[in-house]
Design goal:
The chain has 288 residues and is α/β, with parallel strands linked by helices. The chain is 39% helix and 16% strand. The strands form 5 sheets. The chain has a 4-stranded parallel sheet with strand order 3-4-6-11, sandwiched between helices. Strands 5-14-9-12 form a 4-stranded mixed sheet. The radius of gyration is 19 Å and the shape is globular.
Length: 288
């Protein structure tokens, strides 16, 4: 697993080990005893794949903060890095049984209303992050017929331990500290917020799906940031002054981005996602 030291990787590592998998993880820095790996370095990626000889590969490596606008960095890591991982797995002496690559819901254009996006819908990324993920998917399709490569498109997700540069965790932190005010962008945006623990569980389950797939990782319900704030207020009994600043609003951001979980349900069976209220409560009380 690449980027095992990431927010998602932390939870997925625990999920896989609990199911009996032997997990070998990499990170760009090599901290915490992980294998040091820069996915943009093709020879290094090839050497890593050959030395580990994995049965499964989950590629989480990438720039995961859409607020950045540096196209060169998105392309270098999200596109070239993913291509290097796929190419190394394809050329390995022992090819992995399955490779799962993390794309993003930002490959969808979004809408003005909470209309669910399906995997076969028209794709049209609205920011540089989404464009890099869309380009990644297009490159992987050229290898897909030769090897079991699957793609997941996670919608927004959060949970205990997420960095506060991400908006839900930022809001949770302010409520935890009982701050007097918070500065946010557009709080009316509607997103399909999932719990990272569900995301990890779904990744784990998808490893055993026999055929290649492209699937959303989502609940199928949209919530505005205003709604999340109201839930935090109800849980804590605390209210803050909400100040809005244009600098926190992303350019060309869709008002709504909600996914359909029907294909995910078909692949995994009945989904029982953690409730939004429990996710937010755990972020307030268990900030690991």
């Amino acid at each position: 697993m690449t980027a095992l030291d990431s927010f998602t990787g932390h939870y997925l590592d625990s999920e896989l080990r609990a199911k009996g998998y032997e997990v070998v993880g990499t990170s760009r820095t090599g901290k915490r005893g992980l294998k040091r790996l820069d996915v943009t370095d093709l020879p290094a990626v090839k050497a890593c794949v050959d030395s580990v000889s994995p049965d499964y590969v989950i590629n989480l490596a990438g720039i995961s903060f859409p607020g950045q606008d540096r196209r060169d960095q998105f392309h270098r890591v999200n596109v070239i890095g993913a291509r290097n991982v796929a190419q190394s797995c394809f050329e390995a002496t022992k090819r992995p049984r399955k490779c799962i690559f993390a794309s993003s819901a930002t490959v969808y254009p979004g809408s003005e209303a909470p209309v669910a996006a399906f995997e076969d819908d028209r794709l049209s990324a609205c920011n540089e992050y989404g464009k890099s993920k869309l380009e990644m998917e297009e490159i992987l399709q050229t290898i897909d017929a030769k090897m079991d490569i699957s793609i997941v498109r996670p919608f927004n997700y959060t949970g205990p331990g997420q960095n506060e540069r991400f908006v839900v965790s930022k809001i949770a932190g302010h409520f935890r500290r009982r701050s007097e005010e918070i500065i946010l962008g557009n709080t009316s945006v509607c997103r399909d917020f999932c719990d990272v623990r569900d995301i990890a569980s779904w990744y784990s389950g998808l490893l055993e799906v026999g055929e290649p797939f492209t699937t959303n990782l989502c609940r199928g319900f949209g919530y505005s940031l205003d709604h999340l704030i109201s839930v935090f207020e109800s849980i804590t009994g605390h209210r803050m002054i909400i100040r809005r600043a244009a600098e926190f609003e992303r350019k060309n951001e869709p008002l709504c981005l909600v996914g359909s979980p029907k294909r995910l349900q078909k692949l995994l069976g009945e989904l029982r996602p953690i409730s939004l209220e429990k996710t937010l409560l755990d972020m307030l009380t268990n900030n690991i």
